Amino acid sequence: MTDTIFGKIIRGEIPTDIIYEDDHCIAINDISPRAPVHVLVIPKKAIPRLADASNEDQELLGHLMLAVGRVAEQLGVSDAFRVVINNGSGAGQTVFHLHVHILAGADLAEAGMAG
User: Fold this and answer.
1) Which residues contact 67 (CB under 8 A, 6 or more apart)?
2) For 18-61, how does the pLDDT look when each residue is reduced to its tens digit (9 = 90+)?
3) Could you tell me the fold of the domain covering 5-113?
4) For the chain, what is the total number of helices (H) and then of strands (E)?
5) Which stretches within 1-115 are classed as H helix?
6) How many Å is the maximal CA-CA distance in the chain?
7) Cα dihedral angle (20, 91, 9, 17), rounded to 10 degrees?
8) Which of 66, 83, 102, 112 has the most C-beta neighbours closer than 10 Å?
9) Looking at the annotation, which residues are catalytic?
10) Of 58, 40, 54, 55, nearest to 4 (Cα)?
11) pTM check: above 0.70
12) Residues 72, 4: contact at Cβ < 8 Å?
């Protein structure tokens, strides 16, 4: 486990409201939300960036995507949400422990992010 804020949250050193948890990941609300719903899905295994994942992480990465779907369903936004993974500081990553952003609750297509 790394000594990032996410590692401390996972170890219970920093209290937070966990909105989803299983054996491999947790989900928490982002403290600086960019949308009405902005949740982070964080693997319990510390991987600094997506580019640092290895072949042994393939199952975990798939698990994270399934967890994203479960969290979106739990939050009532499964019909329209965006998934973002920032890789490196140049892409906006500020905590170097892989995490997946779920953004919803706004018209993200109108926000210039249609794809």
Assistant:
1) 20, 22, 24, 25, 27, 41
2) 999 999 999 999 999 999 999 999 999 999 999 999 999 999 99
3) HIT family, subunit A (3.30.428)
4) 2, 5
5) 5-10, 58-74
6) 39
7) -40
8) 102
9) 99
10) 40
11) yes
12) no
